[in-house]
Specification:
158 residues; two-stranded parallel ribbon; alpha/beta; Rossmann fold; 6 helices
């Protein structure tokens, strides 16, 4: 959804991932560029390139690498929740006046504004609808990272 929102806001969007298999999805969602974080050359070429990063990762990862991609006065916002507290080196922030913040969901007013914006721009969530009888398989797939991008359980379909 972050990609879809950023594109709708008029941003030039780059999806950053450690998985090359996500590039096709990134482009399908509207991303203009794809950066493979596991490719040292791509990371070096993208150093200090971005004004803003939205970090949606809930798994362990090095925030300092991502912070190195921000320009002077760049901002990074965390919405994913890694299992361990991230370690951020002061010099990933201080010399280039970068900022790191976090965000959760908004209140009713913000949620309504978001839904109105989605309706206006035709933004919908990509989901896979499953039956309740598939819940164990869905859980196994979620643990294995084989979900694009959310499961919705159809309680009426049984």
């Amino acid at each position: 959804m972050g990609v879809k929102f950023a594109v709708a806001f008029g941003a030039e969007v780059t999806v950053i991932s450690t998985s090359p298999s996500k590039e096709a999805d990134a482009k399908r969602l509207g991303a203009h560029h794809f950066l493979l974080l596991s490719d040292a050359q791509q990371v070096a070429e993208a150093a200090e390139r971005f004004d803003f990063l939205l970090d949606t990762v809930s798994g362990p990862h090095d925030l300092n690498v991502a912070l190195g991609l921000l320009r002077l006065d760049g901002h990074m916002v965390l919405v994913g929740v890694p299992p361990e507290a991230p370690q951020v080196h002061a010099f990933s922030l201080i010399p280039r006046r970068r900022s790191l913040a976090g965000s959760m969901i908004g209140g009713i007013k913000e949620t309504q504004e978001m839904l109105d914006f989605c309706a206006e721009k035709g933004i919908v969530a990509d989901v896979e609808v499953i039956r309740l009888s598939q819940i164990n398989e869905a859980y196994s797939r979620m643990i294995a990272g084989d979900v694009r991008y959310r499961f919705v359980v159809d309680l009426k379909g049984r």
